[in-house]
Amino acid sequence: METTRQKKVSRLIQKEIADIFLRKGSEYAPGKMVSVTKVRVSPDLSFAKIYISIFPSTGKNDILQSVQDHSARIRFDLGHKVRSQLRIVPDIAFYIDDSLDYIDRIDKLLKS
């Protein structure tokens, strides 16, 4: 179960990473829209799993690889944004959130 501190840090990281993707998303994912859907922070606040959704979903593994290659730069930008709120900027790892694709597939199955 997440503590209140973990939830607050998760929301802060989600907001700031979303802002980074809004401003520099064309560098990491040209021609795609990247959304941060969920952030999970470890109990010691040193590691964050960031789940992203990519639209359109074609070629999402290539975009994920590009984002993972630039994760050091994204963490650096995150550090500049949250340096007054967090003592330690957590290590970050990106994962694909395929829940929207799953919902779409279920919806198509129900309609047929």
Distance between the termini: 39 Å
State the helix count.
4
Question: What low-confidence regions span 5 or more consecutive residues with pLDDT below 50?
Answer: none
The profile of the biggest β sheet is: 3 strands, mixed
- The CATH class is Alpha Beta
The CATH superfamily is identified as: K homology (KH) domain
Shape category: globular
Query: Looking across the biggest beta sheet, what order are the strands in?
Result: 1-2-3
Question: Count of DSSP E strands?
Answer: 3
Percentage of helical residues? Answer: 40-55%
Q: The CATH topology is what? A: GMP Synthetase, Chain A, domain 3
Q: Helix-strand pattern, N to C?
A: HEEHHEH
Query: What oligomeric state do the depicted chains represent?
Result: single chain
Strand content: 15-25%
Short description:
This protein has 112 residues and is of the alpha+beta class.
Structural overview:
- With 112 residues, this protein is an alpha+beta fold.
- It has a single domain (4-111), classed as GMP Synthetase, Chain A, domain 3, CATH 3.30.300.20.
- It has four helices and three strands, in the order αββααβα.
- It has a three-stranded mixed β-sheet with strand order 1-2-3, with helices on one face.
- Helix 1 packs across helix 3.
- The protein is globular.
